Amino acid sequence: MLTAPVFETTRTSIGQCSVLDMVQQFGTPFYAYDLETIRARVNDLQAFDTIRYAQKALSNIAILDRLRRMGVQVDAVSAGEIERALRAGFDPAQDPHSVVYTADVFDAEALRLVQEHNIAVNVGSPDMIDQLGELLPGSNVAMRINPGFGHGHSQKTNTGGPQSKHGIWHTAIDDCLRRADRHGITVTGMHMHIGSGTDFEHLSQVCGAMEAACEQVGRTVTTISAGGGLPVPYQADQEYIDLNQYYELWHATRKRVADSFGHEVRLEIEPGRFLVAEAGYLVAEIRAVKEMGDNLFYLVDAGFNDLARPILYGAYHPISIVHRQPGNRQEHDVVIGGPLCESGDIFTQQEGGFVAKRRLPAANVGDYVVLEVAGAYAYAMASNYNSRYRCPEVLIEDGTAKLIRRRETAADLMAQETIPSI
Ligand SMILES: *Cc1c(COP(=O)(O)O)cnc(C)c1O
């Protein structure tokens, strides 16, 4: 069973690797991912028949490769994610469900790849059934259902209900079945990604809606997917989810559907954040320390182009300091910001952009700041804003720090640009 998280405010290593050694080797800023943590989260979910990694959380092909070796399958939401899955060794020819394309639309390139590699599809719009049927009549599909209600306080993270663009509206199932019939398409999978988090009352509503939707589709259904949305704690006062309870609710749903159909039904889970969030660390160097009125600022060499969750969602990341010299330090309330020419480039902020302070041990220019629980939706959202080079990614595996993406260069930055002749 998982225990509550403990976040220290100083550290010297990540996994078995010394931060100072990694700084020497890779420079700053850089992301480090501890593979042991990813492995532990995969083990937590072994009760499910299939763990399908939602790679949009962290899509480096080395991470996909290692997850594949752990027996995890993969979800792709774009043509690029299908290409990444193929590059990482997922073979849809051997196992037609090793890669599933889940989306609300097909763009031309995604549809081409689906056809070329016979990728399984989870459709989120009735039109996708017709578009697939014209190219690949006789296929099997999964349907992502919007049960008519969602969860979550933010429009940006809500994945169900009438305000959400995701999935097939629950009353449109019959229409979809007629479309499928026209193309000889069989609906073999049913999927809901609502993100109930730790709200089990809400989750049982989702399970009830899944059961009803399966009954409506009928006996062709052989797989149900619980989607993603498993939370991880980002702060010491947040708890791990009770995975047993989570599993039992879905397992009971699967059993009822299986009993009703008289055949076995597989249960998938599709986590992104849960598998990788806690494994990730963004390491940056403190480049300036300055007092501004009542605020003490540590300015570091990583910005929101490296980690956007604070400016996007007011997200909280645990922070620790790596000192170049050991010793006890007094604690101070500090604001941590980056180098971008934008006042919102602050890692310690709350929703609405309000600057927050963090109690951390005193540090100097040349010490390091580690932004923690930064594996999910972190590098995946990195950009070149301010023409900054995206930073390297490092995989910590068996006590060794291995480069899995090098730092970008000026050549990378401008590689797709041309100055046309006059
Ligand atoms: C984003 C996404 C997930 C993963 O969500 P997490 O909250 O990271 O677990 C799973 N399934 C689909 C279809 C998604 O779009």
Short précis:
With 422 residues, this protein is of the alpha/beta class.
What structural category characterises the helix and strand content? alpha/beta
Helical fraction equals 25-40%
Note the beta-strand portion. Answer: 15-25%
The largest sheet is: 9 strands, mixed
Q: How many DSSP helices?
A: 12
What is the rounded Rg? 23 Å
How many angstroms does the end-to-end distance come to?
67 Å
Mean pLDDT: 95
Shape: globular
Any ligands, ions or cofactors bound here, and which? pyridoxal-5'-phosphate
Q: Which regions are unreliable across 5 or more consecutive residues at pLDDT < 50?
A: none
Number of strands: 20
Q: Topology, please?
A:
Layout: E1 13-14, E2 17-18, H1 19-26, E3 30-34, H2 35-44, E4 50-54, H3 61-69, E5 73-76, H4 79-87, E6 99-103, H5 108-117, E7 120-123, H6 126-135, E8 140-146, E9 168-169, H7 173-182, E10 186-191, H8 200-217, E11 223-225, H9 243-261, E12 266-269, H10 273-276, E13 280-292, E14 295-300, H11 309-313, E15 319-322, E16 331-337, E17 358-361, E18 368-371, E19 393-397, E20 400-405, H12 410-414
Parallel strand pairs: 3-19, 4-5, 4-12, 5-6, 6-7, 7-8, 8-9, 8-10, 10-11, 11-12, 14-16
Antiparallel strand pairs: 1-2, 3-13, 13-14, 13-18, 15-18, 16-17, 19-20
Helix pairs in contact: 4-5, 6-7, 8-9
The structure holds pyridoxal-5'-phosphate.
Please tell me about this protein's structure.
- The chain has 422 residues and is of the alpha/beta class.
- It contains twelve helices and 20 strands.
- It has helices at 19-26, 35-44, 61-69, 79-87, 108-117, 126-135, 173-182, 200-217, 243-261, 273-276, 309-313, 410-414; strands at residues 13-14, 17-18, 30-34, 50-54, 73-76, 99-103, 120-123, 140-146, 168-169, 186-191, 223-225, 266-269, 280-292, 295-300, 319-322, 331-337, 358-361, 368-371, 393-397, 400-405.
- The strands form three sheets. Strands 3, 13, 14, 15, 16, 17, 18, 19 and 20 form a nine-stranded mixed β-sheet that branches. It has an eight-stranded parallel beta barrel with strand order 4-5-6-7-8-10-11-12, surrounded by six helices. Strands 1-2 form a two-stranded antiparallel sheet.
- Strand 10 (186-191), helix 8 (200-217) and strand 11 (223-225) form a beta-alpha-beta unit.
- Helix 6 packs parallel to helix 7 and helix 8 packs parallel to helix 9 (243-261).
- It is globular.
